[in-house]
Amino acid sequence: MGKKPNLTGLSRFLPQDFLNSNATSLSEKPQNQSRSAKKCKTETHVPVRTKYDATALVPHYTTTHEVPENLQKYFSQRKRYFSLYDQGCLLDEEGWYSVTPENIAVQIADRCRCDTILDPFCGVGGNAIAFAKTCEHVIALDISPTRLALARHNAAIYGVADRIEFILADYISFANAYLSRPHSTRNIDVVFLSPPWGGPGYISTSENNVSADSNADFQDELEAHSQYSLSRIQPIHGADLFRLTKRISDNIAYFLPRNTDLNEISALGLLEKDEGVTPDDKPRMIEVEEEWMGSKLKALTCYFGGLVAGQEHVF
């Protein structure tokens, strides 16, 4: 029989029945003492290089001629995704078009400083790596064993794999199991939501039927006249995903397409009052941060709860 996965860390968050049937932890960490949540800057983390090799899973491209045509525009930006790409960072096809550029991930991580952060759609690890430099403990989920292995491989290159708990599980099941757990000494302080947007053609709509390979200038023009609806978020409606997440923590960073309908984002703020989160009837603010790379707007990060500037008292 193979070695049984070490689930001691995960057991701090979920009931035993979920551990036995639904999740696999890819990390082997000793159980730590509980720490109180905090928003202050954590101590400087000294990178700890560990050996974890996932090179057999996907190719590591080094020259353009090795790259499939549909990925070449992403390969040209590889150093923006992972500054240490040349040291062996790995991405699968979905990872190439969904990973958060490193500078943006670092900026978000700085805003999300806390004890324990949950990254439930970690992909190939771009955000989880950044969170490991500003948070004490990172829980990284993904439904793909390949992407989870790539995330751990990349985290090892950055020397932060020891601060990340990699868990093979879908977020909906994890969240429901977490919410049904007995009271624990460790809570999740912040949730970073970066769910699938619908693939590289998310900007296009069913009405215009524009493919992901369409002319980039036309895509930008189209986007200026279209809006992205939260109903296209996967695996469930984006508003329902937010509602579920608020039961875990009020402190949410929601990473969304740059053309997301701001009225729908505003409506998420109404859920707080509707669900009794603000019994004092004082409205809570939502902060929408534009994420730019040079002259290109890449995405929006919407901050809720104590992550909003000037609203840290509710953290």
Automatic annotation (TrEMBL):
Q: Which reaction does it catalyse?
A: a 5'-end (N(7)-methyl 5'-triphosphoguanosine)-ribonucleoside in snRNA + S-adenosyl-L-methionine = a 5'-end (N(2),N(7)-dimethyl 5'-triphosphoguanosine)-ribonucleoside in snRNA + S-adenosyl-L-homocysteine + H(+); a 5'-end (N(2),N(7)-dimethyl 5'-triphosphoguanosine)-ribonucleoside in snRNA + S-adenosyl-L-methionine = a 5'-end (N(2),N(2),N(7)-trimethyl 5'-triphosphoguanosine)-ribonucleoside in snRNA + S-adenosyl-L-homocysteine + H(+); a 5'-end (N(7)-methyl 5'-triphosphoguanosine)-ribonucleoside in snoRNA + S-adenosyl-L-methionine = a 5'-end (N(2),N(7)-dimethyl 5'-triphosphoguanosine)-ribonucleoside in snoRNA + S-adenosyl-L-homocysteine + H(+); a 5'-end (N(2),N(7)-dimethyl 5'-triphosphoguanosine)-ribonucleoside in snoRNA + S-adenosyl-L-methionine = a 5'-end (N(2),N(2),N(7)-trimethyl 5'-triphosphoguanosine)-ribonucleoside in snoRNA + S-adenosyl-L-homocysteine + H(+)
Q: Which domain of life is it from?
A: Eukaryota
> What PANTHER family has UniProt attached to this entry?
S-ADENOSYLMETHIONINE-DEPENDENT METHYLTRANSFERASE RELATED, TRIMETHYLGUANOSINE SYNTHASE
Q: Which InterPro entries match?
A: RNA_cap_Gua-N2-MeTrfase, SAM-dependent_MTases_sf
Which family is this protein grouped under? Belongs to the methyltransferase superfamily. Trimethylguanosine synthase family.
Name of protein: Trimethylguanosine synthase
Q: Name one GO cellular component term.
A: nucleus
Write out the GO MF terms.
RNA cap trimethylguanosine synthase activity
**Pfam families per record:** Methyltransf_15
